[in-house]
Amino acid sequence: MRALYPGSFDPLTLGHLDLIERAARLFDGVVVAVLQNPGKQPAFSLEQRLEQIRSATAHLNGVEVGSFDGLTVDFAGRSEAQVILRGLRALSDFEFELQIAHTNHSLAPQVETLFLATAVRHSFLSSSVVKEVARFGGDVRHMVPPGVADDLARLFNRTSV
Predict the structure, then answer these.
(1) Which of 22, 89, 105, 135 is the catalytic position?
(2) CATH number assigned to the domain comprising residue 7
(3) Residue 152: exposed, middle, or buried by beta-carbon count in 10 A (0-12, 13-18, 19+)?
(4) Residue 127 catalytic?
(5) What are the per-10-residue average pLDDT scores of the chain (161 residues)?
(6) Least C-beta-crowded within 10 Å: which of 40, 43, 108, 129?
(7) 67 counts as catalytic
(8) pTM for the full predicted model
């Protein structure tokens, strides 16, 4: 069985990576897919985000990295994924994610949504928080993979993050 883990991953955090690693143990294959959202101005280009994910997941078997635009359920079908994986940090995430899961099920009832609780040590992380900390010179090495920390330092013209 294959799972699709979609997101903007701008940037990839250790919370994202934890979910990918856990999914790699649960599924025969995991497709990590960066959503190309024209409504957002990402800090990192699509190519940079794909490379960040590839680099951080190189140690995992069965993980593929790609990108898509359009409906997640359509990409799930093209990827032959039977499950859409979503992480939950707090109860506040659940209401939004449940609405999306119901919408996706109405569009593609053959695709299930699976929620995984974020590890407690990563429950405070979001890509927005990471970028904000990095922008003001804070240390993000405990929040993101090493390559991403380096990319953030370059992005915000810092010698170290």
Answers:
(1) 89
(2) 3.40.50.620
(3) buried
(4) yes
(5) 97 97 98 90 95 98 97 97 95 90 98 96 93 95 96 83 48
(6) 40
(7) no
(8) 0.93
